[in-house]
Amino acid sequence: MEAELAALAASGATTLVGLMVSDSWTAARDRVARFFARRGDDGAVEEELRSAQAELAAARDARDEDAAAGVEAEWRTRLRRALEADPRAAEELRSLLAELDPREGGEPSVSVRNSISGGVQHGPVVQGQSFSGLTFHSSGGPSSHERD
Asked: Is residue 47 part of a domain?
């Protein structure tokens, strides 16, 4: 049972940290804070979640993988302790993760930012995943009105 709780805590921490850098973080933060509040944690949890999110954002901006991993490890430990202290917490956490994890619906959650620089592009620009059978018909050069 301990291995199962450790795996659930790890999954929860990974999801939590992933949500910290997503657009849905505010709603997720409130739900996670309520999860801990039901376990007897005082009102400081919400502030700790805000602090962890800021720390994670700074770590990602600085490309500091160790600091980002530290944030995840901290919440993994905290979740494991909550699971060990309350047998009902495991089912509640599973349910919470199913609702919050953007990957649960079978569709991967991906943020895409397109940026094309370096001048005028004279052909299609494609960004994505898993392309096959694409055909583009283009002269490759500027049109006559662009050359003037």
From this structure: yes
